[in-house]
Automatic annotation (TrEMBL):
InterPro entries: UDP-GALP_mutase (IPR004379), UDP-GalPyranose_mutase_C (IPR015899)
Statement: the UniProt record of this protein carries the keyword Cell wall biogenesis/degradation: no
Record lineage: Bacteria, Bacillati, Actinomycetota, Actinomycetes, Micrococcales
NCBIfam families per record: UDP-GALP_mutase
Domain UDP-galactopyranose mutase C-terminal: 151-360
Example of a GO MF term: UDP-galactopyranose mutase activity
PANTHER family documented for this protein: UDP-GALACTOPYRANOSE MUTASE
UniProt family annotation: Belongs to the UDP-galactopyranose/dTDP-fucopyranose mutase family.
Protein name (Swiss-Prot/TrEMBL): UDP-galactopyranose mutase
Keywords carried by this UniProt record: FAD, Flavoprotein, Isomerase
Length: 395
């Protein structure tokens, strides 16, 4: 094996660590991925009939307030000035999302000022006044009151997570802002946009250094190649970005993950829904949302004869499904602590990324974590300052 560092998984975590190690330290890096392409879940390709860029593993919107991450990603791609806005359909009426003064006034058929709306929501959230909600249900009600929670959050969340919201961590809902203005931007971050030439062009630029070798269709847990677990662990430092429970052969039990199924349809019309993402808040629709990809790139000259949509369905992941979102129930949190202890005992192994640390990371968080791992673990190890400490991030 001709590599100083082996990276399992070519998602943004693996690519960032590989790029830094090859570029800044001049290391020879081997990246393996069991899929037939790089980029992990951020991968996209042009749909064959229409040429419209489709995000294969679910729509990906880049946003960050981390200046270091923003500077870093701009080395590989320029970003468009796309600003994400989402709408949601409830009782056959379309409302702006996240919940803002427009949503509130439309819902209550009113013309409340910001102060009036705040007072109303405070009153409606009164049942939980003075508490510090730890689960999604209570947090949701305390943020927006019961009527809005039941209309826009309760059933959507049930469809998305198939877990009682009182079992889910409050942090999931804290991702969604509530605003007492008419600002309906989905994200609060300073920077936002989509890669001008698509995700794949961006991701490929990250592995342009000739010191990086990429081996696709190569599973770490299968024998018959030089980068299998049995051949590399203990021989050379490894960064593992696959699911942590799989690495330990599920010794502490399966962690629960959610996966999604995307139903793609090419329609012979120019525009299906007039916007990129429409959420479906009600139980009667089995999908959570519909993405229409042409709207992510209004600056492109796409065909007017057809459009591509994805209906997104959410369900529990079984072994063999793609594990996308950590569900993170109390039982999961006990298991992950045990896995993190096991991880520390492995020789020169770093567990990273969304799957390796069992954390709900957006792309900028995965890149941020990868840059920190490079600074705090990889660089000190290879410059001889410090022996590599195995494990993930333990915060
Ligand atoms: P991944 O991208 O999952 O990459 C892990 C890689 O490891 C995969 O390529 C996998 O094939 C490989 N691998 C796993 N096991 C093995 C093995 N045994 N052998 C070899 N290779 C293996 N973030 C945003 O910022 N904005 C969004 O809008 C957004 N939307 C999302 C929508 C969905 C449906 C999902 C699932 C995620 C979304 N994300 C979004 C999050 C984003 O995808 C992640 O932050 C990012 O992909 C994390 O990268 P990663 O490298 O940690 O993991
Ligand atoms: N959510 C909701 N209704 C919506 C949008 C979001 O209830 O219309 C809740 C839901 O629980 C979801 C969480 O807010 O899991 C975070 O939403 P986000 O859009 O960030 O989810 P993601 O894009 O990561 O699936």
């Amino acid at each position: 094996m001709n590599a100083d560092l082996v990276i399992v998984g070519s998602g943004l975590t693996g690519l960032t660590i590989a790029e830094r190690a090859a570029d800044e330290l001049g290391l020879k890096v081997a990246i393996i991925d069991r899929r037939s392409h790089i980029g992990g879940n951020a991968y996209s390709e042009n749909e064959e009939q229409t040429g419209i860029e489709v995000h294969r593993y679910g729509a990906h919107l880049f946003h960050t307030s981390n200046e270091r991450v923003w500077e870093y990603v701009n080395r590989f791609t320029e970003f468009t000035n796309y600003v994400h806005r989402v709408y949601t359909r409830h009782n056959e009426i379309v409302y702006p999302m996240p919940i803002n003064l427009g949503t509130i006034n439309q819902f209550f058929n009113a013309a409340y000022t910001p102060a009036e709306a705040k007072a109303l929501i405070q009153e409606q959230a009164g049942e939980l006044a003075g508490t510090n909600p730890q689960n999604l249900n209570d947090k949701g009600i305390s943020l927006i009151g019961r009527p809005l929670y039941e209309a826009f959050i309760k059933h959507y969340t049930a469809k998305q997570w198939q877990t009682d919201p009182s079992e889910l961590p409050a942090s999931i809902i804290s991702r969604l802002p509530v605003r007492y203005t008419y600002d309906n931007r989905y994200f609060n971050d300073t920077h936002e946009g989509l890669p001008v030439n698509g995700y794949t062009a961006w991701l490929e630029n990250m592995v342009a250094n000739p010191n990086i070798e990429v081996h696709l269709n190569t599973d770490f847990f299968e024998e018959g190649h030089e980068f299998s677990k049995s051949k590399v662990v203990g021989q050379v430092p490894v960064v593992y970005t696959g699911p942590i429970d799989r690495y330990f052969d599920y010794a502490e039990g399966d962690l629960s993950w959610r996966t999604i199924d995307l139903e793609e349809e090419v329609l012979p019309i120019e525009d299906f829904q007039g916007t990129s993402v429409m959420n479906y808040a009600d139980e009667k629709y089995p999908f959570t949302r519909i993405h229409e990809f042409r709207h992510f790139h209004p600056e492109r000259d796409y065909t007017k004869d057809a459009t591509v949509i994805h209906r997104e369905y959410s369900r529990f992941a079984e072994r063999g499904d793609e594990p996308y979102y950590p569900i993170n129930t109390a039982v999961d949190r006990e298991k992950i602590l045990k896995y993190r202890e096991l991880a520390k005992g492995e020789p020169e192994m770093i567990f990273a990324g969304r799957l390796g640390t069992y954390k709900y990371f957006d792309m900028h968080m995965a890149i941020g974590q990868a840059l920190s791992i490079f600074d705090n673990k990889i660089k000190p190890h290879f410059s001889g300052e410090e022996k590599l400490v195995s494990g993930g991030d333990e915060d």
